Amino acid sequence: MPAGAAVPFQTEGSLQCWMVALIIGALVLILVILMAYQRYVAGKKPVQHLCDYCGHMVVAVSDCHHAPVRERFLHGTCMECKKDCRLVCARCKNPL
Per-residue pLDDT for 27 more than 90? Predict the structure, then answer.
């Protein structure tokens, strides 16, 4: 090959590389959409807990005001005073 000759571009594998990148991008987009759905839509539904004391399926309330709570792992945030609280049964007021 002469010293001044240009090297031609490789075109055989280029289309396959773009297709793989497109598929990976689509999968990442689907994952982001599912995570957003889980966080914002499914997180708004009230979660039912089985109370160990009364045996009913109940919605948790706060121990401070017996108001609805925004649930987190093993505790929640009282919707009335906006402070951290423990979760209690809505019927018998015992801890969940």
Answer: yes
Report the residue count for the chain: 96
Instruction: Tell me the whole-structure pTM to 2 decimals.
Output: 0.52
pLDDT of residue 30: 97
- The confidence score (pLDDT) of residue 4 equals 54
Report the helix count and the strand count for the chain, using DSSP H and E: 1, 6
Q: Kindly provide the residue ranges of all beta strands, DSSP E only, lying in the chain, ordered along the sequence.
A: 48-50, 57-62, 69-72, 75-78, 84-85, 87-89
How far lies 10's CA from each of 1, 14, 17, 28, in Å?
Answer: 17, 7, 12, 28
CB 89 within 8 A of CB 58: yes
- Does an H or E element contain 32, and which? helix 14-36
Are 87 and 46 contacting, i.e. CB atoms less than 8 angstroms apart? no
Phi then psi for 26, rounded to 5 degrees?
A: -65, -40
